[in-house]
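Reminder to self: keep the SMILES exactly as supplied, no canonicalising. Ligand is calcium ion.
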Amino acid sequence: MKTKKILSTLLRGAAFFVASASSQASNLFQNPGFETGDFTGWISGGGSKTVTSAEAHTGNYSFAGQALDFASQPFTPIPTSSISELSFWGKRDGGLANAVTLSYSDTSSELIIVNKIPIGSSDWTFINLIDYLDDGKLLTGFHIYGTSPGPAYLDDFNLQPGQRPSPVPEASSYLACALLLAPFGAKTFRLLRKRQAV
Ligand SMILES: [Ca+2]
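Structure tokens returned for the bound complex:
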């Protein structure tokens, strides 16, 4: 019985390791956790941007950005229907929100306000942007700003190819919006939902 339990624990550990390794292997971000200790793979800008060892979600480094600092990556165009995850981890000392811009092959872009990272928390917050991707488009780029006062620490960016999960609506708020906007049609409701803060 005891041997069975140990074996089961070992197998679970092995499965986790394989899943984790496979997730890292297919991540389309280059240098997603800044573990080169610099901006290799990223386009960066702003006067106080740094890759720092002061904070890290995993590994030893993260991107530390004030408001005008940014980090961007272009991608080989990928259909939004073929993205199973678009996410990152954040922690910040101040500032209201991080702005993220997603770019598409039709030259359109989408601004997302990320304000759900608590200020001054010792914990890192997981931010999932998968529901914010525009349907029927090809994603070509990701762009994120820091915060002021800051910095915002940002780490472990993840763009995973795969089947896009169906959006999970937040029943109460979306139902209220849907009822309110019913006369204007489904498209209006969807636009409002996409502009909500993350
Ligand atoms: Ca890292």
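Points to follow up:
The chain has two domains: 23-166, 168-198.
Confidence is low (pLDDT under 50) at residues 184-193.
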